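Fig. S4 source data, part A: sequence.
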Amino acid sequence: MRLRKFRVRAYRCIHDSGEINVGDLAAFVGRNESGKTTILQALTLLNRDESVSELDLCDEMDEDLKDEMRLVEGSFELNTTETEMIRERFPNLPEIREITLYRTNKTDRVQYEFANISLSESRSKDLNSWENFVRRITAFIDTLPNHLRIQIHTAFFEGQAPESREAFDREMAEFNNHFHMIAIQEPAVVSEWVRIYQRQENQFSNLLSGESERAALYNFIEMEIHPRFVYFSDYKKIYGNINLNEYVREEEGTGAGRNSIEYVEEFDKAETVRNLFYLAELDINELEDVKDSPSKCIKLLNTASNRLTSRLNPAWKGDPIRVDLRYNPGNIMSVVISDVHMDGIVTNTGLLNRRAEGFKWTFSFIVNFAAETQRAELKEAILLLDEPARNLHPTQQMGISDLLRNLAGSNQVLYATHSPFMIFDYTPGNLLVVELDRRRHLSRIFYDYWNADDKTLTPILYGLARGHVESMVDREIGTNSRPVIIVETISDSMYLNAFDRFLRDPNISMNPLNIIPAYNKNSVLPLAIFYRNHGYNTFILLDNTDESHQIYEHLLKNEFLPVQTIFFELEGQKIESMEDYILPEDYLHPVNQTYEIKLRREGYTSIGPGDLDGKAECGGILARLDDIWKDHVDDRWGRFDNEEITRYICEKITFDDADFLTDKTRDRFRSLYRLMAERIRQYQNVITKADLERFRRKKM
């Protein structure tokens, strides 16, 4: 079940968030005290076991809160499995693909709402529910002879429905044995009971809870598919030495202090140590059994260290690390960290507590977060993370980003951040901005985040186009600047500027243009909107792929003219990348020059045009080279880096050493420049001053 939109009202500083669409991996960005944490915590109210505190209700809305009000509501999309589960148990209902959950200030329980579905609230004998199951059993017992009936214990059927299948099966087995003992002399009675006992509909997994159709559906959703919100905010630090005696006492609840394991000047919290051992799959009891045998102890800890290292490195950016758990006299466990370099050399081996504070914090965050999420076997949960990358270097923040992406495969992840390095999806709904109305001290959430305050947008702008933030927000610069062309990658920008120099053609010079590289493909749309809204004549240059055509459709919806979008094409044919304007044999020259040196030890051999045949037949030269590199993954060729080839070509052009580029390649680029120049002339002929003024915002 995935949250698709939500609304928060009268909760702390949020008066009314409005209806907000949200994606599977969404970031909330805003200045301090803007309400990001409040939003995440408000969503936890949709957990079935959560409660609402009077202190959390918005003081400014006392009058509104006298009536029942939905504090938080969310619209959830069911996956195929969940839809089938409901259909199987409620075959007479229409298919349910969407459910609204909400919690009010007057009702403790989370409530459900189904669009266009009528549910009966009257008692139904047709429901295969716990209540009707009890009636069937009771009716059977009432038919028994009195001398049997008075001996039967029916307490199990007089209470609430059991909470688990195990409890149900245990109680039923006991009742079954009890019944057989009492009715052993009555084979007909026993036969009838066995028939009832073995009926498939009387199995716990088939029993609903509730006497009406509405109650049964509510209870089924609550017990079986109700979404789970998991909130993370406290990221504890791990140090280098662990007193195992104290740890065991803490685990058994007999320690001197709650969650503390003191050793010399530093301490670890029992929870963090538990997480460390969990990732290493280290059983403290097994360690106790082998600690007096050095060989067995070393083998056990080596295995645990290898597991721990392998689970941490995927989220660790920079040089890989090696983590070793070592057992020392006095029942002390040491956490030893080493740096592992690309050539295999291991350096800087030492206790974790000797590392820098930032290193310890990073290490601790990854251990704690990875362990907590894995231990909970999170699947189809909604993870709420408050500043997961605070105190981290940008390279480590990108490592956390990888961790979040992995989690988002089977869960939904919503997180608050201030960092541009933690924003990696600019799709509306996956990036939300939170602002505080300081006059009323109430939060506002922007789905169309480009309309938020420029200061709030600063980390997003740096992510969208990190070198252009100051010029973008100065409207006088935009109004008086040359036209801009938004391109998808830094490589596209480098090629356009380099080949302008290379062609030396004054008739098609790029001098009147300003090339702006986007951060990545999904940042093209908002970046173009920002520039257009700040007074620039804006054009967009896109590769000719399905994803780019989707961007084009969104541009049209945001009032861009068709003439402002330029797709790569050559002689009337669609092409996928700017590299396809270069003849294959011309492009392969820098590829071979670069990789013959770079991969000399890995057996690299020159690639010719014939080697491209049969590779990614529907794709351009980059897709074909990617396929060749994938064929040599076991040869340690790594990943084909087209940006490195771009830099090689542009550098050769700069130093007038690009003889490998033929006249046909030059002519192909000329056609691209002519296309762009023609589009700009067409736009200038149709655009009016009134059109430009529509998108200019008033000065603040």
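Fig. S4 source data, part B ends here. Residues 257-268 have pLDDT under 50 and may be disordered.
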